[in-house]
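Figure 6 in text form: structure in, sequence out.
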């Protein structure tokens, strides 16, 4: 979706854009319009207007509900789980760079 959105909006082919810096990529990514494939998904996921939600198609409802379930799952992770994962990440960085 990212590649097709960049091509649609900016006419940039990411696989061949050798001079595109990471900073530029992030700026372009954050500026994607709702009319692009990725922008459309982001718009669906973040919609909160009840009137708009009533008119969502079954596919749009699924996209939004799947995203909300994922976010709720992440948010409900207990503190101990987060602590363990943070320690694992710190060990991995230490092994790789320390």
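Output sequence:
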């Amino acid at each position: 979706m990212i590649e097709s959105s960049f091509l649609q909006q900016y006419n940039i082919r990411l696989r061949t854009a050798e001079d595109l810096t990471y900073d530029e990529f992030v700026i372009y990514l954050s500026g994607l319009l709702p009319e692009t494939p990725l922008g459309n998904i982001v718009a669906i996921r973040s919609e909160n207007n009840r009137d708009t939600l009533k008119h969502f198609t079954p596919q749009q409802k699924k996209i939004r509900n799947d995203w909300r379930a994922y976010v709720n799952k992440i948010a409900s992770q207990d503190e101990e789980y987060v602590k363990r994962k943070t320690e694992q990440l710190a060990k991995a960085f230490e092994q790789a760079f320390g």
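Caption detail: The mean pLDDT is 90.
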